[in-house]
Design brief:
Keywords: Membrane, Transmembrane, Transmembrane helix. With 330 residues, this protein is mainly beta. Helix content is 13%, strand content 52%. The strands form seven sheets. The chain has a four-stranded antiparallel β-sheet, with no helix packed on it.
Amino acid sequence: MLKFLFLVVLAVSLIPVGNSPSGIVYHHYVYVANYNSSTVSVIDPSTDSVVSNIHVGEKPIDAVCANGYVFVSDSGSDQVSVIKGESVIKSINLTSSPYSLAYDNKTNEVFVTEPDTYSIVVINVNNLSIVRSFSLSFSPGAIVYDYLSNELYVAQLPLGKIGNVYVLNPSNGNVVNSYSIGGYPANLGCFDGNVFVASWYNNKVFIINSSGVYNFDGGLAPFGIVYDPNDGYLYVSDIGTNSVLVMTTSGKVVDNISVGDRPSYMVYADGKIFVSTTLSNAVYVIPQVSPPSLPISLYLLIGGSIAILVIVGFIAVRVQLRSDASRKRR
């Protein structure tokens, strides 16, 4: 009953978008790449409604914000669409199918992974042109930039069911470190020096930081991951249960929120979590989850302790008053 009431307070809602929503990003508006519609839906987070749909290249799969632009990887047309406001202002041609994107705010560059050619392409945001590329020894998937360490974290698309996360120098693409994940590192997130990894197949969440790497259970099939800096929780989309797990960074599950079919990418925006649900053709909106309330037993314990202190204090005052009265009579 308490759980039911808690979910009602959350008031999870959905926003219909295009077919097979995938990558999702926030810049004033929420931009959702609709993989099978070749469009990007633009959502106003203040009203949770679609304000426009932008036609891009074929099969857009991911997006990233960069200095006022939104870059979209069009995996079916070997290009990156650049959006300003609600219009495509340029299409940048690549040599292979793009997948994931990351933004380096220090150099004002966007990094685009190309899994088929084992490479990463670098786009200069100032002139919207390709400035260099890296050849890798593995097929790159998800990518994220850690501004504190000035490093790129790149997930290896797994051979079989085993993948790694590689740490790259963003200037030359050299590998400076690597971590064995033991599953499919489907998505990466980063906040304040912590890199979060949703690992499919072995169903774990990994956290990598300067102290090392540790992991905990992440549901039946974790895919997307995002950190909410306001409530301090990790949100993990679980395509195995069509739900979003709300977790502490130590792995404790605070809530399990049902959403649409195949929840994938997520973004934090305007105090809410927006979730792409690929088979529901919708974005689900989850309000910020409040920290869990204290157990009733703890409230009773606190209340009982206060009552005891009041009683003890009352008795002490009565004793003191009687002692004072006795002295006066003498």
